[in-house]
């Protein structure tokens, strides 16, 4: 049976990249499929998190998803650590995944940087836990941004190796859902870098909690080239900053990039940027207001996550039991 799973790390505030790359798809998929959306706190701690920040960021992320249109009545909303089967299956997958597979993961290389010996073991093993997050629900579809493609291929490799090693057809081969005009939103300061919540420069990203003035200012100051916008998509080749702003516009307005260029082709950035800012504010400010309102009642958010965890465990507990049984663990 089809099921959707996806997760976001409570390792900082939500960015426009998370919203356009992932959350917008989360919202549209909940009318078609049963969905589980997860604040992956166990992933966040692969890099040190101040406990006070982690509590706040987890609640704010949940508020962000709800404010964006995810209904706790339709979808299951959880934080990962409240559903222990994620970590339990994660251990099993640590024993299925191969060191060589993990060493090829580009996100580990990017995040660990030059000092990989000093990275946590958890950061290295992250993709095996991510595979467990997905497969503990037998999820078939995973909406994500482009940067997660390699991890989803690894998830399929882990499922296939488990099925092969135990001679079963138990874990499904999951499909990534990488759709929309902005599957890879880039930094506003550097068109070759992904927009990221952990970038030291706040000007590089739009945060979901930014007010109208700072959104407008960040867009006005976004790096661009001096040329006018093209009217055809080919004209965005080798213009990463221009392409990024057009992609953001298209995704926010639910248009194709071609349609946007047909309208704005020939404009200078001095004309285009204020329109983009206005569009961004009109789409994001209702969400940030609703987030702030929800954050006034953190106990209610905690109740939603606790209820989600109870619903989730009805799915995850039997799948973990069956996994252990297949592997020969005495029950
Ligand atoms: N810039 C982006 N463009 C499109 N999609 C993006 N996503 C993240 N950044 C972009 C998608 O958002 C989902 C959640 O990501 P995450 O928080 O779990 O991890 P991440 O990819 O590591 O995100 P960040 O913002 O870059 O966090 P840090 O800075 O902590 O590493 C995923 O579906 C991701 O593809």
TrEMBL record:
GO cellular component, one term: cytosol
Lineage: Bacteria, Pseudomonadati, Pseudomonadota, Alphaproteobacteria, Rhodobacterales
Protein location: Cytoplasm
Motif 'KMSKS' region mapped to chain: 194-198
Functional summary from the UniProt entry: Catalyzes the attachment of tryptophan to tRNA(Trp).
UniProt key word Transport: no
Superkingdom classification of source: Bacteria
Binding annotation for L-tryptophan: 133
Keywords: Aminoacyl-tRNA synthetase, ATP-binding, Cytoplasm, Ligase, Nucleotide-binding, Protein biosynthesis
Binding site for ATP: 9-11, 17-18, 145-147, 185, 194-198
Gene Ontology terms, MF aspect: ATP binding; tryptophan-tRNA ligase activity
Catalysed conversion reaction: tRNA(Trp) + L-tryptophan + ATP = L-tryptophyl-tRNA(Trp) + AMP + diphosphate + H(+)
Family named by the database record: Belongs to the class-I aminoacyl-tRNA synthetase family.
Single GO biological process annotation from the record: tryptophanyl-tRNA aminoacylation
Main location: cytoplasm
Protein name: Tryptophan--tRNA ligase
Short motif ('HIGH' region): ranges: 10-18
């Amino acid at each position: 049976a089809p099921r959707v799973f996806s997760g976001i790390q409570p390792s900082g505030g939500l960015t426009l990249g998370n919203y356009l790359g992932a959350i917008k798809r989360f919202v549209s998929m909940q009318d078609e499929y049963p969905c589980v959306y997860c604040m992956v706190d166990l992933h966040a701690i692969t890099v040190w998190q101040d406990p006070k920040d982690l509590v706040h960021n987890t609640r704010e992320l949940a508020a962000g998803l709800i404010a964006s249109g995810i209904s706790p009545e339709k979808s299951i909303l959880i934080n990962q650590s409240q559903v222990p089967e994620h970590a339990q299956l994660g251990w099993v997958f640590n024993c299925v995944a191969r060191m060589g597979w993990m060493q090829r993961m580009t996100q580990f290389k990017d995040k660990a940087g030059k000092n990989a010996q000093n990275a946590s073991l958890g950061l290295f093993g992250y993709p095996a836990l991510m595979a467990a997050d997905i497969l503990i629900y037998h999820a078939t579809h995973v909406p994500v941004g482009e940067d997660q493609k390699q991890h989803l291929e690894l998830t399929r490799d882990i499922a296939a190796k488990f099925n092969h090693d135990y001679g079963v057809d138990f874990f499904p081969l999951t499909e990534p859902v990488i759709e929309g005009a902005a599957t890879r939103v880039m930094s506003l300061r550097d068109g070759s870098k992904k927009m990221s919540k952990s970038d030291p420069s706040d000007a590089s990203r739009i945060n979901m909690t930014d007010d109208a003035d700072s959104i407008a200012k960040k867009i006005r100051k976004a790096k661009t080239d001096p040329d006018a916008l093209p009217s055809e998509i080919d004209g965005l080749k080798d213009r990463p900053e221009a392409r990024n702003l057009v992609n953001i516009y298209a995704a926010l307005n639910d248009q194709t990039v071609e349609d946007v260029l047909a309208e704005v082709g020939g404009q200078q950035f001095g004309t285009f940027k204020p329109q983009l800012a206005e569009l961004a504010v009109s789409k994001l400010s209702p969400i940030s207001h609703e987030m702030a309102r929800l954050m006034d009642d953190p106990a209610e958010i905690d109740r939603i996550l606790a209820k989600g965890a109870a619903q989730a465990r009805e799915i995850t507990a039997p799948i973990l039991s069956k996994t252990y049984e297949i592997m020969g663990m005495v029950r």
